[in-house]
Design brief:
Layout (H helix, E strand, L loop, with lengths): L25 H4 L20 H7 L6 E4 L6 H11 L3 E6 L5 H15 L5 E6 L6 H5 L2 H5 L3 E7 L3 H4 L2 H5 L2 E4 L5 H13 L9 E2 L1 H11 L3 H17 L4 E2 L1 H8 L11 H15 L3 H14 L3 H16 L5 H16 L4 H14 L5 H14 L62 H14 L1 H4 L1
Parallel strand pairs: 1-4, 1-5, 2-3, 3-4, 6-7
Helix pairs in contact: 9-10, 9-11, 10-11, 10-12, 11-12, 13-14, 13-15, 14-17, 15-16, 15-17, 16-17
C-alpha cells in the first residue's frame, strides 16, 4: 500500500470545489479553511501561539492534539494542509501499520532532500501500538516530518513518553453552546453549507445545541439530516418535530441554565441518597438524553460518594472517580455506561453522612476562632535552632510501639476534646464505631491526665 492510498476521501478535502459539493457531508463542507474561521479553542489562537506558528510559519513543529470528539482536531490538521506549502499526508491509526508509517517517512526523507517539508497527520494515534509509535521517533526527532497526532484519550497514558516529549501537547476543549449555535448559523447561511435554503426555528435550534454536547460534527450531521427530512417534504422550515424525526430523539423540557436543570439534578441526588436505584437511573437517562454535560453529572456523583456514602462504602468514591475519568477519556454515548455504573453503586451502597458532618463541625470551629497553637511536640524540628525553641520535644513516634498508637495530644488545646467524626452503624462504617472509640481512648489519655 502506498502512502497516497491511505488518504481518507471524506476528511482529506483540500480543493476548493469540494467545499461546495453537495455530495460531500455538511460537516466536511463546513470545515474551517483558516484559523480565523475556527470556532472555539480561543486559548490556542493567540498571536505567536504554537498552533499559529504551525499554520502560518514554516517551523517543523510536531504537536499532539488532545480533545473530545468534534472539538476540531481533524479540522486543525486540514487548516495546516491548506495554509502551508508543505506536503500533507494523512494516516488513520485504525488501518495503518508500521510498514505504512515507514513508507511515509521514506518519501518524506526524499522530498526533504529537495527542500520540501512533510506534515504527517495521524488520526486516533492512541490506537497505534507501542511499536508503531516508536517507529515515528527518529523521524520526529530529526524533523523529517512534522507530526500532528490527534487523540481523544489522555496522551500521558495513550502515547509513549519519548514521542510525547518530542511534541507539543495542545489540549482542546468541548465547544460551548454558543459555539455550536454560531456554527449552526454559519451552516444555514453560507454557500458551502445550506445556502439559505432552510430556516431553523428556536426550539429546533435549542434541541440541536443540546444534542451536540460540544461536538461540532454531531451538530452539523443532525442539522443535515433535519434539512434532508424537510426537503423531502418540500418544506424550507426546520422545526422541532422535523429535528426529532430526523435524529430519532425526542426533545425533553430541560433548560440547562434554568429551574429544570436544578430540579432534575436535585431529584437525581435525592434518589441516590434514598437508595432508589431505579429513580436515580431515570434521572440520569433524562439528563443524558436532554444533553446535560456528562462532566457535570460525573462531578455530582463524586461529591455524593463522600457526602452521602462516605466510610460506609469507600469504594463508591473510587467508582465515581473512575467514572469521571471514563467520561473524560471516552465521551458520550459510551461513557453513559460509566455513569450508570457509578449511579448503581452509589444508590445501592449503605449511606452515611458522617464525613460531611465531621468536616462541617471542624469548619465551624475554625470560623468561630477555635484555632490555637500547634502543640510543641508536633512542631517542625528539622531546622537549625528548632530544638532550642522546644520544637519536637516530647514527640512520641507511634511506630515505636507494638500497637502503633500512642498517648499524645495532636489537636490545639482549644479543640482537644472535640469529636468531629461520629461513625454510623451502616455498612463498612460499623466496625469503625468501636475502633474510633478505642483509638480516642488511647490517644487522649495524655490530655485526660
Amino acid at each position: 500500500m502506498q502512502p497516497a492510498d491511505l488518504f481518507d476521501a471524506a476528511t482529506a478535502v483540500t480543493d476548493a470545489t469540494a467545499f461546495t459539493d453537495r455530495n460531500v457531508p455538511l460537516a466536511v463542507r463546513m470545515r474551517p479553511r483558516t484559523l480565523d474561521e475556527l470556532i472555539g479553542q480561543r486559548q490556542l489562537l493567540a498571536p505567536g501561539s504554537p498552533l499559529r506558528r504551525l499554520v502560518e510559519g514554516d517551523a517543523p513543529i510536531s504537536v499532539v492534539l488532545w480533545g473530545p470528539p468534534g472539538s476540531g482536531k481533524t479540522t486543525i490538521a486540514h487548516i495546516v494542509s491548506l495554509a502551508t506549502q508543505r506536503r500533507f499526508v494523512q494516516l488513520s491509526a485504525i488501518s495503518a501499520g508500521v510498514k505504512d508509517v515507514r513508507a511515509v517517512i521514506e518519501e518524506a526523507r526524499q522530498h526533504r532532500a529537495t527542500g520540501a517539508q512533510t506534515v504527517l497527520f495521524i488520526d486516533e494515534v492512541h490506537r497505534f501500538s507501542k511499536t508503531q509509535q516508536d517507529s515515528l521517533l527518529a523521524a520526529v526527532e530529526d524533523r523529517i516530518v512534522a507530526l500532528i497526532a490527534a487523540t481523544t484519550e489522555n496522551p500521558h497514558f495513550a502515547i509513549v513518553s519519548p514521542l510525547l516529549s518530542r511534541s507539543l501537547l495542545l489540549s482542546l476543549e468541548p465547544l460551548t453552546d454558543a459555539d455550536i449555535d454560531s456554527l449552526l448559523t454559519r451552516a444555514l447561511r453560507e454557500t458551502r453549507g445550506l445556502a439559505g435554503e432552510f430556516t431553523l426555528d428556536a426550539p429546533a435550534r435549542a434541541h440541536l445545541v443540546r444534542l451536540a454536547v460540544g461536538d461540532a460534527r454531531k451538530a452539523l450531521t443532525a442539522l443535515e439530516a433535519a434539512a434532508g427530512s424537510a426537503g423531502a417534504q418540500q418544506r424550507s422550515a426546520i422545526d422541532l418535530h422535523t429535528v426529532e424525526q430526523a435524529v430519532n430523539q425526542a426533545a425533553l423540557r430541560y433548560d440547562r441554565d434554568g429551574d429544570t436543570h436544578y430540579d432534575v439534578i436535585s431529584a437525581f441526588i435525592k434518589s441516590m441518597r434514598g437508595s432508589d436505584v431505579d429513580a436515580a437511573l431515570h434521572w440520569l437517562a433524562r439528563m443524558i438524553t436532554a444533553g446535560e454535560d456528562p462532566r457535570f453529572i460525573a462531578r455530582r456523583i463524586v461529591i455524593f460518594a463522600s457526602e452521602d456514602v462516605g466510610m460506609a462504602d469507600s469504594t463508591v468514591l473510587q467508582t465515581a472517580v473512575a467514572a469521571f475519568h471514563g467520561v473524560q477519556l471516552v465521551g458520550l454515548p459510551e461513557a453513559g455506561l460509566n455513569l450508570a455504573h457509578a449511579v448503581i453503586h452509589a444508590a445501592t451502597a449503605p449511606k452515611s453522612n458522617a464525613v460531611v458532618s465531621a468536616l462541617g463541625q471542624a469548619m465551624n470551629d475554625i470560623r468561630a476562632g477555635r484555632t490555637g497553637s500547634v502543640p510543641p511536640a508536633l512542631r517542625d524540628a528539622h531546622y537549625s535552632g528548632a530544638q532550642e525553641l522546644g520544637h519536637g520535644t516530647g514527640y512520641r513516634y507511634p511506630h515505636d510501639v507494638a500497637a502503633g498508637v500512642v498517648s499524645q495530644q495532636y489537636a490545639p488545646d482549644e479543640v482537644a476534646d472535640r469529636e468531629y467524626y461520629q461513625p454510623t452503624t451502616h455498612g463498612a462504617e460499623q466496625p469503625l464505631v468501636e475502633r474510633v472509640a478505642k483509638l480516642r481512648s488511647i490517644v487522649r489519655a495524655a490530655t485526660d491526665q
